[in-house]
Amino acid sequence: MSAANSTRVNDFTIKIATVNGTGSASANTLLMKSIFRSGIPVMGKNYFPSNIQGLPTWYEIRITRDGHVARSGQVDIMVAMNAETYARDAKEVAPGGYLLYDSTWPRPALLKREDITVIGVPLARLCNENFNGVRTRILMKNICYAGVLAALLDLDVARIRELLAETYAKKPQLVDSNMKAIQLGYDYARASFSCPLPLRVEPMSGTAGHIMIDGNTAAALGCVFAGATVAAWYPITPSTSLMDAFKMFGDRMRVDRDSGRRNFAFIQAEDELAAIGMVIGAMWNGARAFTATSGPGVSLMNEFLGLAYYAEVPAVIFDIQRVGPSTGMPTRTQQGDLMECAYASHGDTRHVCLYPANPEECFYMAVQAFDLAERLQTPVLVLSDLDIGMNDWMCRDLKWDDSYRPDRGKVLGKEEILKLEKFYRFIDKDGDGITARTLPGVHPKAAYFARGSGHTQYGAYTEDAADYQLVLDRLLKKWATAKKLVPRAVIDATAGAPVGLVSLGSCDGAVREAIEVLKSRGVGVDYMRVRSFPFSDDVERFLAAHELLFVVEQNRDAQFRALLTLETAVDKSRLRSLLHYNGLPISSSFIVEGVLAELRPRQRLQPQGALRG
Amino acid sequence: MTFIAKPKVAHPSLPKNALGFTRRDYEGALSTLCAGCGHDSITAAIVEASWGLALEPQNVVKLSGIGCSSKTTAYFVSGGHGFNSVHGRMPSIAMGANAANRSLHYIGVSGDGDTLSIGLGQFCHAIRRNLNMLYIIENNGVYGLTKGQFSASADVGSRAKKGETNFQPPIDPVLLAMTLGASFVARSFSGDKQQLVPLIQAGLKHQGFALIDVLSPCVTFNDHEGSTKSYAYTREHYEPAVHADFVPLEREITADYKEGETLPLIMHDGSRIVLRKLDAAYDPTNRTLAAVQIQERMKAGEYLTGLLFVDLEPAKGAFHVVNQTPDAPLNSIPFEVLSPGSQGLEKALARYR
User: Which pLDDT does position B316 carry in this prediction?
Assistant: First the structure.
């Protein structure tokens, strides 16, 4: 059966199955970027193993003229380069779709499907005939399929050359060899099949004012622009690339031209305990400092987070969430650390958390995190995840406001200290629960003792019941102040429906697409994307204003829903969870199906229009 | 027990240092440790050393973890900020603080439990980074606050107050530090102020990680017959090998040292430490041989004390040298220099288009 009768332009998904460590990442990036450069909105998701070489890896490219940012949940073209996963890859193609494989070796007949179009290209043979060396042949085989796809999809080869020239600006001979492989695939496909396929791309102008960037890179940029000078971390997937990016930008933008000195300290710690300790030490001492980690790292940081909360020391932590529990699946995504981060450490502790939805927000929230941490004198955790952090997202151009100046919070300088008769660290003069602090090295009058042990408002050690409680209660007042300062929820109540979707972080793209789909099926829903913890007042209002609320999140135990029930007055019975937690990014179809499964029986039971939509 | 401030009354006849401060100006809160605790003597030695060096009190940063020893940072230099962090994690706080502002004096005070058990990892890595700080271990072989358990520095055969015998080999912080590449390694005894004060001064001036392991008997839980960390045992078995005299910049070396037995070390600010060998066969600049000698004497039941090893080029491999940080503290660099601005962002984003 052929799908040749239905032409689909700029709206389909390609999935590429390869073996990791064979250069396929370069080929996939090349493909995606050349589509992006043609002005076509595109999404790329990398499903890679926790391994260096030899295990299966997949890359999904969704070409989406409407600019969706989530997975579609369907594969239209499969490039099956990995014999080991060939059987399951062939099965995954949607009826009417295409399967491209390396026909150098015979394809097992038993995997033949009648409802898809199978395209065989002898990629290995072509490369073996044209390139020398085992490694080169393997690498070029992968570049070669990009050439085949260029012909099948009608991609502009000149754009591919342009991208290669940028990538290999310093190694021009690589441009030629890569182009040779592209051309081999391109020419073979043009000669052997009717090109282009009905699934094809056409240049458009849907990407103007946009960039393609991953969240870790964007967050690192945010740290550079926020003026962070101390970066300490222990390597852990999927957060490492944030630190790598910070160092890369630092080496470019933070090196003094005359002296060659670096205006930042970059410290690879011995473990996450030390990493957060360094951040706390540096911020206590007046530098902007941060660390990046993932769930296992946050587990280790709990003790120190409690100290920073109680000793009131700012800290910025990026948690690039991955699949738990325990080691879990390090290269898969989840929102499994919501609870852990909100209440990290023993005793009464609560932490400010920010939930960026995409790389763009990672950039801005990185800056906000430092301002909030210093204003509130407390740790701020930015909860990104592997999907946001490591995948390339198309997002709006990042902008920088040159009038921005960091909010260093209530830090007394020498002049202010001199005016004081005496300095006491924890006396709440302004009534907002935030007390003035001082930095070491400024003036002996302002010295104080930071400690995790019980202390009075004067900063002295105490075991006195009333003195202890006074400080603890003041921290609650500070928490109330935090509520007013954190980013508000993004609310779309245009449907004016009694049904609301509530979500956070990387679910956003899938939820927004799902809302469109639901609308097209006559179901209108409102939407609230929560962006921070503690929950701002608008969260409470949205929850109160809706009869039925779907809480969409990516973990098994409905952690976000639990936080909502703990920290707001919402009636539990009005909450329905839509939980996606298999490690792949959530898709819009998952949400659509979940909402409809709940609403359809209700609509049948209730008079028409009771739940509008 | 709450904080008790010491009355700051200074008699006009009290001697003043170059800054016009008396010793009282380098004191802190009243100690709440047991009477006779070795730690209080160390506190006194730090006060004496800081006064002698005429440190600006606000430039002293006092860091500690958890335990009896870690409480002592509240008992000296009240004009300097202190950070009593969590158990065994003081080195990471010190690292971060030092990264933010390299111009201050960082004094870490820890114990044998805080350093050699829960904090062993951070201790080792602070040494590896050659973090510029003075790290004092108040070593008494026992957990005091939890009432008398053996610590990792307890010697084999040592008996606890309740009669139990320790069979696990001790971790010796001096030998460990030497194998990890520490650039300044000393051992002393809380009861020997003559030796300890100049060691602290030398450690404060040292441009890198300076370790002083101070045997500091616990009068309550480890000062009995059968303990190898008691006052009596320590006095009997400690053996000064190298005496360090600290000579400030403005003072001439006047003591008469015998040729070949002294070694003046010039510090970064021009001041000097003059090492006086009390044991002619001992070479405190030879890491390998020194370590062998320390171990041999230990086998014979003797603790060699003094400045046991010093690197003549300490700055090599020091954190800020390796990191290529500017001389000015990172926390003092203006935001305008740190943030590349909208044009910088435009440039940075070119590759993502």
Answer: 81
Using the structure block, give the residue that is written with the tokens 């508000």: A488
CATH superfamily of A213-396: Thiamin diphosphate (ThDP)-binding fold, Pyr/PP domains (3.40.50.970)
Domain boundaries A8-207, CATH class: alpha beta
Interface test with A, best of B6, B66, B83, B337 (most A CBs within 10 A): B83
Q: How many CB pairs under 8 A join A and B?
A: 239
Task: Identify the CATH class of A490-605.
Answer: alpha beta
ipTM of the complex: 0.94
Look at residue B271 and give its three-state secondary structure: coil
Closest listed residue to residue B151, CA positions, set B180, B181, B118:
B118
Tens of pLDDT along A488-506?
999 999 889 999 999 999 9
Contacts of B337 in chain A (CB under 8 A): 263
Q: What is the CATH number of domain B23-336?
A: 3.40.50.970
Residue among B79, B81, B341 whose CB faces A402 most closely: B341
pLDDT band at A613 (very low <50, low <70, confident <90, very high): very low
- Cβ neighbours, 10 Å, residue A585: 26
Q: Tens digits of per-residue pLDDT, A33-55?
A: 999 999 999 999 999 888 888 89
Write out pLDDT tens, residues A328-383.
999 999 999 999 999 999 999 999 999 999 999 999 999 999 999 999 999 999 99
**Contact call for B100 and A281, based on CB within 8 A:** yes
Q: Are strands A230-233 and A289-293 parallel, antiparallel or unpaired?
A: parallel
Are A398 and B347 contacting, i.e. CB atoms less than 8 angstroms apart? no
| Closest among A291, A292, A299, A290 to A327, alpha carbons compared | A299
Closest chain A residue to the Cα of B331, Cα to Cα: A287
Short-list A400, A363, A369, A345, CA closest to A279? A369
B109 CA: distance to closest CA in chain A (Å):
14
Instruction: Say if the Cβ atoms of A439 and B81 lie within 8 Å.
Output: yes
Q: Test A267 with B99 for CB contact under 8 angstroms.
A: yes
Q: Which residue of B has its CA nearest to A414?
A: B58
Q: Do B83 and A450 touch (CB under 8 A)?
A: yes
Query: Over chain A, what is the mean pLDDT?
Result: 95
Beta strand segments in A255-372, E: 265-268, 289-293, 315-321, 352-354
Q: Give the distance from residue B282's alpha carbon to the nearest chain A alpha carbon, in angstroms.
A: 34
- Computed over every residue of chain B, the mean pLDDT equals 90
Q: Which chain B residues are within 8 Å of A289, Cβ to Cβ? A: 96, 99-100
Cβ distance of A456 and B82 shorter than 8 Å: no
- Sorted by where each begins, the domain ranges of chain B are 23-336
Same fold, A213-396 and A490-605: yes
- Supply the DSSP string of A395-455, one letter for each residue: EEPP---TT------SB--HHHHHH-SS--TT--SSSSS---B--TTS-GGG--EEESS-B
Cross-chain Cβ contact B330/A450 below 8 Å: no
Model pTM score:
0.95
Domain spans, chain A: 8-207, 213-396, 414-479, 490-605
Closest chain A CA to residue B90: A277
Decide if A460 and B98 are in contact by the 8 Å CB cutoff: no
Q: How far apart are CA A317 and CA A299, in angstroms?
A: 12
A565 Cβ neighbours under 8 A, 6+ residues apart: A572, A575
- Nearest CB to B340 within list A224, A260, A264: A224
Residue B125, CA atoms < 13 Å, CB-side half-sphere: 25
**Are B131 and B98 within 8 A, CB to CB?**
yes
pLDDT value for A72: 87
pLDDT by residue (tens digit) across B81-139?
Answer: 999 999 999 999 999 999 999 999 999 999 999 999 999 999 999 999 999 999 999 99
- Nearest-angstrom CA–CA distance, B136 and B64: 10
CB-CB: which of A224, A285, A452 is closest to B97? A285
